[in-house]
Amino acid sequence: MPPKKIKTSTKTTNRKTKKPLIKRIRLGRLLLVLILLSSIVYGSYIVISEIYSWGSFKYAQYQEAHPSKPQKPPIPPQFTDKRFENYTNILFIGIDDKPVEGIAESGRYADALMLVSMDHTNGEIRFLSLPRTIKTSIDGRKDPEYLSFTYYYGGAPLTVNTVSQLLNIPITQYVALDRKSIAKFVDTIGGINLYVENNMDYEDPVSGTSVHLTQGYQHLTGDMSQQYLIFRNDDLGDIGRIQRQQKFAKALFEKMMSLETIPTLPTILDIWENNIDTNINILDISNLINLLDTLSTTEIKIKMLPGNLTPTGDWVPDNARVEQEINDMFPPVPEDTAEE
């Protein structure tokens, strides 16, 4: 009787052969992905390093070709308090474009006011908008007047001191710029993306004001940014304008902190030196690095000074809510710490 042939299962053999093959294919794909990711990461590192190196080189060139103008002195602290030691408070002042004839720099009005406070302990940044129609005491004036008049009467120093007294916080630095300077900044960094809430149409032949923006997502140029910032001809008036200024400030901040703005640094510095009234010397490289390092580590928070709008358009601060807002921004120091 012939021996029985033992049948081998081709399916079993194929499975045994396929498993190592599949494992090798998967391993090969994994290695390929890892190599690809490593190349992307390394390439990105090289690109970023090159961009920063190029930016530093252009900055050095700019410093050599454009010696810094004499720096305006810091404003002496209005008072000292331990709770404010770890903060840098800067008042940003948006001034109108047309100076009053014969009064030069101090003949302009403060058209927008925003306090920027940077906490050096955690990198947090807070913006506090102040309506220009707040009536308050101003040094040298008999009766309370609008906050916007302070720049007219005494330039940035008087505006800073008035806001400091109003909020009861020390402020020593300021940046005052008009809409044309903002437009130059926006054009230099390639514009910003922003959602325009409503159609905006307004014409004033006397002042030369022309606003025409369409509702929806827009890539704003410098000129379009000016239109967005000055528009107040809706139901909310100045309050709606302040809300748009806050929204714009956040979008501009985010764009300024992006890598794509690095090649524009020399032009930005030129605008800063020649178009802005400030006592911050941005050409001090150590200060610049510290400032950028602080600004790029956190999300900004923007609020408006608490208060109520009167029928005449005045903004009356709610003192209790203002005090609470200031305590939130600058938490009181425990008594035992303050006495050290």
UniProtKB/TrEMBL annotation:
It comes from the Bacteria. Belongs to the LytR/CpsA/Psr (LCP) family. This is LytR family transcriptional regulator. Pfam families: LytR_cpsA_psr. Transmembrane segments: none annotated. Residues 110-257 form the Cell envelope-related transcriptional attenuator domain. Gene3D superfamilies: LCP protein. The lineage of its organism: Bacteria, Bacillati, Bacillota, Negativicutes, Selenomonadales.
